[in-house]
Amino acid sequence: QVQLIESGGGLVQSGGSLRLSCTASGGSFSRYTLGWFRQVAGKQREFVAGINFYSGNLYYGDSVKGRVSISKDNAKNTVYLEMNNLKLEDTAVYYCAAEELPVTIFMEATPAYWGQGTQVTVVS
User: Fold this and answer.
1) CB 7 within 8 Å of CB 19
2) Nearest to 83 by CA among 63, 100, 99
3) What is the pLDDT along the chain (124 residues), one digit of tens a residue?
4) Is 90 helix (H, G, I), strand (E, B) or coil?
5) 3-state SS class at 104
């Protein structure tokens, strides 16, 4: 059974940085895309970033481009999301997700596997 374990959320001041991690287990992820979505209560889920373990292709959501960077460690089945210059509107629950899909489809889909979510709160 595929499991995704996230870490790294927390409270940060506006303009600060955070790094989220997501480690996958219980499967073979060589062709998977892993990535991050975020959601604020009462609002639609938003794609943040995704990266494909095989191709290395990566994409970012429009609202975070230029402020976040996603990277991977294939040997550890882990993806990292480095977030810089955080804004109040980045406050959300961040979910790691995974599926054997190209990133371009992953970012528009509802991936099959999800982590439990980690809260990111940006304060002024």
Assistant:
1) no
2) 63
3) 999 999 999 999 999 999 999 999 999 999 999 999 999 999 999 999 999 999 999 999 999 999 999 999 999 999 999 999 999 999 999 999 999 999 999 999 999 999 999 999 999 9
4) helix
5) helix
The beta strand positions in the chain, using DSSP E, are: 3-7, 10-13, 18-25, 33-39, 46-52, 58-60, 68-73, 78-83, 92-99, 113-114, 118-123
Q: How far apart are CA 36 and CA 107, in angstroms?
A: 9
Which residues pair with residue 95 across a beta bridge?
37
Degrees (nearest 5) of the Cα angle 28, 33, 36? 120
Q: Find, among 48, 29, 30, 49, the residue nearest to 39 by Cα.
A: 48
